[in-house]
Amino acid sequence: MNPETQRTQEFQLNGDEVVAKVKELIHEGNIRRITIKNEDGRTMLEVPLTLGLIGAALLPVFAAIGAAAALATRCTIVVERDVPPTTGDGDAA
Fold first, then answer.
1. pTM (predicted TM-score)
2. Could you read off the pLDDT of 27-54 as tens digits, one per residue?
3. What is the rounded CA–CA span in Å between residue 56 and residue 78?
4. Which residues contact 70 (CB under 8 A, 6 or more apart)?
5. For 3-82, CATH number?
6. Which one of 28, 57, 70, 92 has the minimum C-beta count within 10 Å?
7. Domain boundary assignment for the chain
C-alpha cells in the first residue's frame, strides 16, 4: 500500500474504554488496521480489517480486543486509515 494513501492516528485510553472506541472507529469506516499497545508501548493485538468484516463477523474481534484491554490499565490504539487519493492539482474541469 502506498504510504500517501494511509493515515495513522493514535488514541490513549483506559482499558475499559478500548472496546467502545474500537466500535466507534470501525463504524466511521476507512479503517485498514487497528493495533492495541500496552502502556509500555508493546503491541498486544494487531487486527487487520477489511471491508467484508461487518456485523457478526466482528464479534470475535471485539472479544479479543476486550481480552487484550483487560490486561492493561492504559492502552494506546493505533489506527491506520485509507485516505482517498487526491485528483491532480485541484483544478475543476
1. 0.71
2. 777 888 889 898 899 998 888 876 555 6
3. 23
4. 15
5. 3.30.1490
6. 92
7. 3-82
